[in-house]
Design goal:
five-stranded mixed sheet, alpha/beta, seven-stranded mixed sheet, single chain, Aspartate Aminotransferase, domain 1, Aspartate Aminotransferase, domain 2, 2 domains
Length: 385
């Protein structure tokens, strides 16, 4: 575009869209072709192929995401875990070491705990809120530090500026899983992170109908991640690219509603008899609140809490809820509830979950965009003492 828009909402709608429009189409067409004509050696065109993530749909989407993420480059992948694994393997090789925040999303935890050691890569865990303890875990072979903007499922917010500073001081790649925040609530690359990873299955797409991942950041690192995806086959289908590009256009509007609804529900739950601890960084009572206010534009659409009756009370509440679906994943327009011990973090041992503070009765709510009063009424009715 001759004039790149500055406002994020405008960028989400217009950035990366082909100009002139293809055959006049206002919406990006779906190029449902695995193979594209090649002009031969010396031609200006490159080899285009779905597995290479460079079809017109991939290119337009990556251009939009690079602007939205405030990054040098961006890449889409077949899933959030494809993005996680490609980002890590773009930096790490046998003999290397990575520092990771505790707790992590269950899929990332499993990859770090079980798959990286098979490749000769070691790790140590750090507390995101205690940067003074990180240096003790450094090794000469440490290459990367990995955190989550808002950690899954207890919604901790690390000292994000300290992560960037620490990485610069020690020559590490600073990487962050920004899924729970989205670029609307936090833009990691603008804050100095080298890589930002998103499970686009969640908020970026927002409609619970595709699986996708995003890697954004330094151009050299994104290029290395793209090479890993080419070799491992983690490419995104063009129709999924189309759906993600469409979903991104309403991201800012949806996130504003997710933020507002989650705060309303968290405030209600904190007052409700029969509810134990409520985890939400937007609550002034939260130990994460000061950090969240310092770093985030909004507190996100995720709330977790425990009922005084534990797992049995949680399951009984699930059976009485009307609006939320009892389902894993998050970030869609509809509200979802789940117990992480049986879904996102089921791969952790009971000891590991206990160490991370994830009890069997912990309830995680992905708060949708329904009317907030309807959600509060539904949870109020479903929670029984």
């Amino acid at each position: 575009m001759a004039h790149e828009p500055r406002g994020l909402t405008t960028q989400l709608v217009h950035a990366g869209e082909p100009i002139p429009r293809i055959a006049g189409a206002v919406a990006m067409p779906v190029f449902q072709s695995s193979t594209f004509e090649f002009g031969g050696p010396g031609a200006s065109s490159e080899v285009r192929y779905i597995r290479l993530s460079n079809t017109p749909n991939h290119a337009a989407l990556a251009a939009k995401l690079a602007v939205v993420e405030a990054s040098e480059a961006a890449l889409v992948a077949a899933s959030g875990m494809a993005a996680v694994s490609a980002a890590m393997l773009a930096v790490l090789k046998a003999g290397d070491h990575i520092l990771v925040q505790d707790p992590l999303y269950g899929g990332t935890h499993a990859f770090v705990r079980h798959d990286l050691p098979d490749l000769g890569i070691e790790h140590d865990v750090v507390r995101g809120d205690l940067p003074e303890t990180w240096k003790a875990k450094l090794r000469p072979t440490t290459r990367m530090i990995w955190v989550e903007t808002i950690a899954n499922p207890l919604l901790q917010v690390p000292e994000l500026d300290a992560v960037v500073t620490f990485a610069r001081e020690h020559g590490l790649v600073a990487a962050i899983d920004n899924t729970f925040a989205s670029p609307v609530n936090y833009r990691p690359c603008a804050a100095g992170f080298d890589l930002a990873i998103e499970s686009a299955t969640k908020y970026l797409n927002g409609h619970t109908d595709i699986v996708a991942g995003v890697i954004a950041g330094r151009a050299d690192l994104v290029e290395r991640a793209a090479l890993k995806l080419k070799h491992l086959g983690g490419s995104l289908d063009p129709h999924a690219c189309f759906l993600l590009q469409r979903g991104l256009k309403t991201l800012a509007l949806r996130i504003a509603r997710h933020n507002a609804n989650a705060l309303t529900l968290a405030e209600f739950l904190e007052r409700r008899d029969g509810v134990g601890r409520v985890h939400y960084p937007g609550l002034p009572s939260s130990p994460e609140h000061a950090r969240a206010k310092r770093y985030l534009q909004g507190f996100g659409g995720m709330v977790s809490f425990e009922l005084e009756g534990g797992a049995e009370a949680a399951d009984a509440m699930f059976a009485r809820l009307v609006l939320p679906a009892v389902a894993p994943s998050l970030g869609g327009v509809e509200t979802l509830v789940t117990r992480p011990s049986t879904t996102s973090h089921a791969g952790l041992s009971p000891t590991e979950r206990a160490g991370a503070g994830i009890t069997d009765g912990l309830v995680r709510v992905s708060v949708g965009i329904e009317d907030a009063e309807d959600l509060v009424e539904d949870f109020d009715r479903a929670i029984r003492i």
